[in-house]
Amino acid sequence: MMVRAPALVRCARTARVFSGRVFLGWEEHELELVHSGKVRELYADGDDLIMVASDRVSVYDVVLPTPIPGKGQVLTQLSLWWFGQLGDVIPNHVISGTDVPAEWAGRAIRCRRLTMLPVECIARGYLAGLGLASYQQSGTISGVRLPPGLGEGSRLPEPIFTPTTKAAAGHDEPMTYDEVAALVGGSMAAELQRATLEVYRRGADLAATRGIVIADTKLEFGLLPDGTVMLADEVLTPDSSRFWLASEWQPGRPQRSLDKQFLRDWSAGLDWDRRPPGPAIPPDVVAATQARYRELYTRMTGRE
Ligand code: ATP
Ligand code: MG
Q1: If you average pLDDT over every residue of the chain, what do you get?
Q2: Which atom of ligand 1 lies at the shortest distance from residue 166's CA?
Q3: What CATH code is assigned to 115-263?
Q4: Whose CA is nearest to atom 22 of ligand 1?
Q5: Environment class of residue 41 by beta-carbon count within 10 Å: exposed (0-12), middle (13-18) or buried (19+)?
Q6: Would you state the torsion angle of the CA atoms of residues 99, 101, 105, 109, taken in this order, to the nearest 10 degrees?
Q7: The pTM of the whole model exceeds 0.85
Q8: Pocket of ligand 1 (CB under 6 A)
Q9: What is the tens place of the pLDDT at every residue in 233-259?
Q10: What does the domain layout of the chain look like in residue ranges?
């Protein structure tokens, strides 16, 4: 069974900069749980948020009963690494990757508490997943028309912005650019598109130097009280993106993935209707998923 943290946790903190002074040693601190998502918990700490990535994994928006040990650390450390690479594209929500309660060290980020924009900002450079399904049905993705003749895994002529709704429950639905503009305003829509495509391009170029193709990615943005747009949530992780080995990429067939696709493919072979409760993951599939997440992290960052 999945164990969720209680609404209020007492946690010991190590060092904390507060009002310009540094308190060393252990300090009791109460944090309020403000959101428990499929994968992450958000706690309020004064004006800051502590975002804690669990080892939970979701497939088709259903959290599976089996955790992937170490996954939360990989997502958090990889996101921190990417935030560092992308700082000049757009400001981001990170305050610290280390000033977090000791019990969550490695899997938590102290970040700015933002008003999240109700759009999932997706960039695609290759055809896969729901984008492929939409293209095959209509020749378009989120209203963007693509040339005929593309197949599974095809590289697109240029990266495209294919936003969706950010549904509180259930599945996200495609949105056209005009629908995004109607929801958040024209200049905000333009900034979301610019930042999403630029993060994708920069990420894909960097990944290419490590022999990795980033097929697509999903980003989330939020606003500071003064209206500044910031990149938030997680960035270019195997939960939010598709990663393929460049040496094995071959359009016209499914690609071997260093991401969650492995679990989707495994679950597709089961007699499961994609509704809760999700199936337990057998140990060999847990290990293979873990290995993929680790391999991606090591290849990208050069760290173990
Ligand atoms: P959702 O569909 O809302 O993303 P989820 O189940 O995917 O749900 P998680 O990814 O597990 O949720 O939890 C992360 C949540 O934190 C997301 O709702 C995300 O929008 C939100 N979030 C990320 N960064 C920030 C931030 N800086 N300020 C406020 N909320 C944030
Ligand atoms: Mg999420």
Answers
A1: 91
A2: 2
A3: 3.30.470.20
A4: 233
A5: buried
A6: -50
A7: yes
A8: 35, 37-40, 42, 49, 51, 93, 111-114, 116, 166, 220, 222, 232-233
A9: 999 999 999 999 999 999 999 999 999
A10: 115-263
